[in-house]
Design a protein that fits this description.
CATH architecture: 2-Layer Sandwich
Order of helices and strands: EHEE
Distance between the termini: 20 Å
Structural class: alpha+beta
Helix content: 10-25%
Number of strands: 3
Radius of gyration: 14 Å
Largest sheet: 3 strands, mixed
CATH class: Alpha Beta
Number of domains: 1
CATH topology: 60s Ribosomal Protein L30, Chain: A
């Protein structure tokens, strides 16, 4: 599959398994750092360059398992 070449809309969901001791409402990790790590990892693989990203929607939450879900779509 060729990398996306157009303007992109990225959606990212970060799910973390809650530690037994934690009472935090959301995971501790900084969302902006998590987003940067995902975009850097997908650069030149899923898209030509992360400069193409025009819209990002992301959130972090507690879950039953550790998981990162990424959706990529080209904007018109």
């Amino acid at each position: 599959m060729e990398p996306f070449a157009g303007t992109l809309d990225i959606g990212i969901i970060f799910e973390y398994k809650r530690p037994k001791q934690s009472t935090l409402p959301v995971p501790r990790a900084d969302l902006d750092n998590l987003i940067k790590a995902v975009l850097d990892g997908l650069n030149e693989i899923a898209f030509v360059d992360d400069k193409q990203v025009a819209l990002i929607s992301a959130y972090k939450k507690w879950s039953d398992k550790d998981l990162i879900t990424v959706t990529i779509s080209e904007l018109p």
